[in-house]
Amino acid sequence: xxxxxxxxxxxxxxxxxxxxxxxxxxxxxxxxxxxxxxxxxxxxxxxxxxxxxxxxxxxxxxxxxxxxxxxxxxxxxxxxxxxxxxxxxxxxxxxxxxxxxxxxxxxxxxxxxxxxxxxxxxxxxxxxxxxxxxxxxxxxxxxxxxxxxxxxxxxxxxxxxxxxxxxxxxxxxxxxxxxxxxxxxxxxxxxxxxxxxxxxxxxxxxxxxxxxxxxxxxxxxxxxxxxxxxxxxxxxxxxxxxxxxxxxxxxxxxxxxxxxxxxxxxxxxxxxxxxxxxxxxxxxxxxxxxxxxxxxxxxxxxxxxxxxxxxxxxxxxxxxxxxxxxxx
Length: 328
Ligand code: NCD
Known about the structure:
alpha/beta; Rossmann fold; 2 domains; five-stranded parallel β-sheet; four-stranded parallel β-sheet; 11 helices; 9 strands; binds N-carbamoyl-L-aspartate
């Protein structure tokens, strides 16, 4: 695989292999020196045309833990604000020599354009394109479910996962439905009719308008952010009405089986799709998802860029030992 553009690019065995690789790489986070020499001398560019906190930092941490050089580009403060196109920006990066480009863009399809245009020669990873896809988020979510509910091995066969909220604008939902169904999970989307996309009946999942009815049969409940910045119309009467029908509060938590986990990709609208005490409860995996994101992105970079042995020890200089003469 040269690029990771869609969660649908991953077949069952490849997806499980990425999760297994992430599981091995996660152990590095427990070491005092969190670094492997694997991608030494490689350059990874974070090309972010849209705001991001955790995804950009997560990719940066992942690339650095594998010893790659990381260049962070954000559209704000760059020549993009002077009107420079995606093509010219890409060709500039190419001219500087980059091995992989991690791209986030408000236009659905921008990473595909970058990967298939011939503007750049390196690997392209989709870090979120418009309302389309966010495959590494789906991988870290699957990794978190597998760790919490399947002992960190195998696939997610039979797991009942409910995604709740603004499915229409959610690239996280789209990528999760694709990946989770590949891994054998049974996915249900719960949303008001106005926030379900046209054609959702062709997706590999069930749909419902009734959250209370769906919660008792869920092993995982993933709350989606209401994406006001992408809304050009009124999709529900009031915030209060939305929370009352589709928000996860303490009372609704009581409808869930004992073992059920609560997820959210962040950033959260606390008090809207999720109550603050639910977000901070013992069932919530929200902080764990962030931690797992680094391991999963390390695995993706490692597999795409074809690194050396994962088990190789950290380089001498990284563990503070004197570097032998002649070693670069
Ligand atoms: C998501 C995104 O940007 O698509 N966040 C993330 O990457 N963690 C979800 C969102 O913005 O609601």
